[in-house]
Amino acid sequence: MGTHLTAHEAVDTLRRFCLWVLARLDVTMLAETEGVYDIEVPKDWQIASTRTQRMRFTFDAAAAIGDGSIEVVAPRGRLPELLARQLAACGIVRHLHVRGQPASVHEIAGPMFAAYRVDGGGVSLAGCRLEDKAFLRWTTRQGEGDGASNGVVAGWLDSAGREPAADEIAAIGLESSEVTNSPPRVKPERLARWIDAVLAKVGGQAAAALSVDVIWCKYASGKLRFTIGDQACDLEFRGWAHTLKPPPIDCPLTREHTFHLSATSDGRIAAAERIGICAVSGRRMLDSELVRCRVTDQHVLPAYAGTCHVTGEPVLRDKLIECALCRQAAHPDSIKRGVCDVCRRMEAVTASDARLSRVLGEYPRLDFWRRWKLGEGTRSYVMIGARWLASLLIVIDRQTLEVSRLATGSRLQSQWTDVPETRRAEYLA
Ligand SMILES: [Zn+2]
Fold first, then answer.
1. Where are the beta strands (DSSP E) in 241-313?
2. Over 90: is that where the pLDDT of 212 sits?
3. DSSP alpha helices (H): ranges in 95-211?
4. Which of 38, 265, 359, 410 could in theory staple to 30 by disulfide, Cβ–Cβ 3.0 to 4.6 A?
5. Could you tell me the distance, in angstroms and rounded to a whole number, from the CA of residue 423 to the centre of ligand 1?
6. How far is the CA of 376 from the centre of ligand 1 (A)?
7. pTM
8. Ligand 1 centroid, distance to 324 Cα (angstroms)
9. pLDDT at 120 over 90
10. Is the pLDDT confidence value at 428 over 60?
11. Domain residues of the chain, as ranges?
């Protein structure tokens, strides 16, 4: 667990730690010249080997050359150990916090609100919590050091004693923390107990720590409420306060991820990108509730559109053209000289054709007719049968086999005469 620090990192860590402890313990700094520090050691520190109460030390080995009285501070040296002992005895912990993190809910709310657009409505906070979460940064001496590492190992632990992954450390911004003089209020005994418990989880290595810092990070969680008229929808958010990004809204009606909400004419809140306007009525509806007319390309409510019986596509009712033969509505492109594609492309079929045999099964009298031709639309069959000079036109629903047109004709003329309702049975029953 933990990572070896380079010699430079180790010395830098030591230097910052030692100087902070000295300042925190109010040790008098007598002088500091060219990287050599001169301190007056407090009497109660009881250093057996020191006659004088003064100590000179440096973190830069070169600065001590030629002067044996200057201690070069090393991880295994006297000073770090002495300071760690004093610190532990006083129960003092160095507190840091992540640089630049928001201090209040207000600082979070502003940028969050700005990320969303709500047509004819607004966004508000429906609850927000800022929690202080603690991490431990520990350093410890390990082995003799190999020159490159200087024998200092450092690691992170979260409040539960787990080591956060490198990308998590980066995401939280732990590396860019700074000493704070106003850490969250925690009773010293509680903090000490927690630190002991966390360190105990990683065993002796960290338990014999050279330094332990507590880094405080603010974690935000809450709910945004978007309101238009008397309708509202909520969006939960959570994350490290200083890296918190406004999440997209998962539109409850369309599942579209959006930062822009609007309302339909009947007051439902939805992603603005998924709301369209009916070209006939002007009503604002979900895209999925409108159909596109294949003639005008306009989006309209289904009530204003019919279906082309040739292609099955929606077409504005007043743009549909009725076929002169089958009398069914079709897209203008599917009509040539007044007759639809289905009627113009009828093909000869025999009794073995499943469609024809099904119709004949339903209406046995049709068996009287021969030389059947059949055209198939999206809803119906158009069929023409012949016998001698007479012919019969029948338009029949594909599903229900209900007859919508029945007409007789003659092979000598092109006109069809509708069979009155009252006489239909003569042909069909
Ligand atoms: Zn037709």
1. 249-250, 257-258, 260-263, 269-271, 275-277, 284-286, 291-292, 299-300, 305-307
2. no
3. 105-114, 166-172, 188-201, 204-207
4. 38
5. 23
6. 10
7. 0.70
8. 6
9. yes
10. yes
11. 3-220, 257-286, 290-342, 346-428
